[in-house]
């Protein structure tokens, strides 16, 4: 995969396919265009995951880049419609998640890449942690505010990424409402991301650019791993 990282992994055809899938989200259209799905989405995404693996190993040996077509880092394109009013059978974006090795046992942070016709973003952290995990993270922020400040309010993280997600209406009852990072104590999600464009994704060297983003997110990832008592 070394040579592939010097070339473009993804192409404009990926986004053209996703845009058309959004307009024709049915099984008949997908069956007629499955070759496009395999050529422009599935195969390049698995190549990207494989190419990123050695870079991820250098960032953290406890996160996994799994290039299997099913059950690996690439999210299935097939939607689970059992409990959804929207019965569209397919997702219209590419989701790639580099999970923590402990991800199946505990709520653990990971890296993520999202590619859709109208939205492309990359980043790392933890999305919708359960109550226990969220409390442990908030307690870590309150208990070591200076480290939290260094992790996300300065350095490479603050230059490249921004914290996002949902928040509580007020700080937890045990916390100081006037805490310097009260807004962060209210967070339900602890995920930092940066927005990208289609041209970024299809450019040669995007694997290296994504690795740079993940390195910038590493201070947050390390903070979260320490708060949740998992290795980084």
Describe this structure in words.
With 232 residues, this protein is an alpha+beta fold. It has a single domain (4-227), classed as BirA Bifunctional Protein, domain 2, CATH 3.30.930.20. The protein is built from nine helices and five strands. Strands 1-2-3-5-4 form a five-stranded antiparallel sheet. α3 packs across α9 and α5 (145-152) packs antiparallel against α9 (206-227). The two termini are 26 Å apart. 33% of the residues are buried.
The general outline is: globular
Derived structural class = alpha+beta
Radius of gyration: 19 Å
Could you give the order of the helices and strands?
Answer: HHHEEEHHHEHEHH
Please tell me the total number of domains: 1
CATH superfamily: Protein of unknown function DUF1054
Please list the strands of the largest sheet in the order they lie side by side. 1-2-3-5-4
Report the mean per-residue pLDDT as an integer. 94
What descriptive keywords fit this protein?
five-stranded antiparallel sheet; alpha+beta; single chain; 232 residues; BirA Bifunctional Protein, domain 2
How would you briefly describe this protein structure?
The chain has 232 residues and is of the alpha+beta class. It is built from 9 helices and 5 strands.
